[in-house]
Every structure is written in C-alpha cells, then in structure tokens.
Amino acid sequence: MTKTIHPIAGGIALLMILTFWLSTTLSELFGGSALVTTVKTLIPWGFIILIPAMMTVGGSGFRLGEKMRGPLVAAKRKRMMFVAANGILILMPSALYLSFKAQAGVFVRIRVAHFRGNRDLFGKLREKLAPHGVLAPFAVLDICPF
Description:
Blueprint: H1 2-30, H2 33-64, H3 71-103, E1 106-114, H4 121-129, E2 137-145
C-alpha cells in the first residue's frame, strides 16, 4: 500500500508546486496587476492540497526507508529534513507574505542586480569570488505599489 501511495502523493505535490511556479511566472511576465494579485492570493489556498500531500510523501517515504541502511539512505534522510524545514520555515511564510502584500496592492519582486566597478566594494568582492567560479550578482528586494 505504501509503495502505491508514495508516488501518487509525490506526483500531486509536484503538480501543485509546478502549478504555483508556472502560474506565478506567467502572470508576472504576461499578466496585469489584477492577475498577479489573484495568483498570489490563491497560492496559499493551494496549501490545503499541498501540505497533506507532502505529509503523506514524507510519512510513506520514511516508512519505505525504515528497513534500508547505507550511506545513500542516510544522506536522503538528512536532505529531506532540510527540505521539510525549508518549506515550513522559509517557503510557506514567503508565500503568505507575498499574498498579503499583493492583497494590499504592493508588488514584491526579487531582481538580480549586477554591480560593476573596479574600485568599489562589489568589485573587490567579485575579484575574491571569481577564482572560485562564483559570479557576484546580488538579489535586491524591489517593492513598488501597483
């Protein structure tokens, strides 16, 4: 039974997350402010489906891996704890925050800003990060009214 439930719940969770991501991206790119507000307002309502699906996936996955041992299983367990914490502590509050801001008529977007310059702080940071293969874009929170 668990072997059947796990992929079904995982598929439902994946479809919900894909729906959130695609609807947000398409509304931001091609829609007006009313569509963006509607999408950001509806996403938290999708948690009604997403949270039980994720709980089912986590519980069934834990049960399926109960008897398994080895470094891959241990790494997967550790990674899934991080994924769950990220969803609960960062992603869900972010979605709620964006929903409340959209309902209040405020766009909140994250953009990438590339700072250029030879002698500024960011130029020095870029020089230090470049040998490690890291670019120096910085995320900037852009808040503007509709």
